[in-house]
Amino acid sequence: MSRAGTWLKMLTVNSGVVCCVGGPAFVQYIRPTDEELFKRYNPDLQKRSLEEGDRRARDFDEYVTKLKEWSKSDKHIWIAAQEQQEQRRLEAQTQNTQAKEDARVQREEMRKELLGGK
């Protein structure tokens, strides 16, 4: 029984090692590279991917820069991001109200010119 138990333990350990090491190695072996995936695209997707690649890289760099900026504060990153988003919303709202006010002033001036010109 002792020898059979030892062999059983050895087989169990070996099969565990094969699964833990061999599984990820097999997945890495069969995973296609980025170039292989790109070659499988149809020509329209390849063209669009090449055109949008720079923009996506720029957007990602901007996002990483913002994350670095948010991490410098003593607040949690997501709270800092939410505060910045709220600040941008308020700025957009202020610009919108300013544009409406400018349009109203311009309409008033046009109205005065029309009435004064008669």
From TrEMBL:
Q: Which InterPro entries match?
A: Cbp4 (IPR012420)
Q: Name one Pfam family in it.
A: CBP4
Q: What organism does the record attribute this protein to?
A: Aspergillus japonicus CBS 114.51
> Know the name of this protein?
Cytochrome b mRNA-processing protein 4
State the family it belongs to.
Belongs to the CBP4 family.
Q: Which UniProt keywords apply?
A: Chaperone, Membrane, Mitochondrion, Mitochondrion inner membrane, Signal, Transmembrane, Transmembrane helix
Lineage from the top down?
A: Eukaryota, Fungi, Dikarya, Ascomycota, Pezizomycotina
According to its UniProt entry, what is the function of this protein?
Essential for the assembly of ubiquinol-cytochrome c reductase. It has a direct effect on the correct occurrence of the Rieske protein, core 4, core 5 and apocytochrome b.
UniProt lists compositionally biased (Basic and acidic residues) regions at 99-118
Annotated region Disordered: where? 88-118
User: Where in the cell?
Assistant: Mitochondrion inner membrane
GO CC terms? mitochondrial inner membrane
Respond yes or no to whether keyword Chaperone is given for this record: yes
Provide the membrane topology annotation. Single-pass membrane protein
Question: Which residues does UniProt assign to the signal peptide?
Answer: 1-22
One of the GO biological process terms: mitochondrial respiratory chain complex III assembly
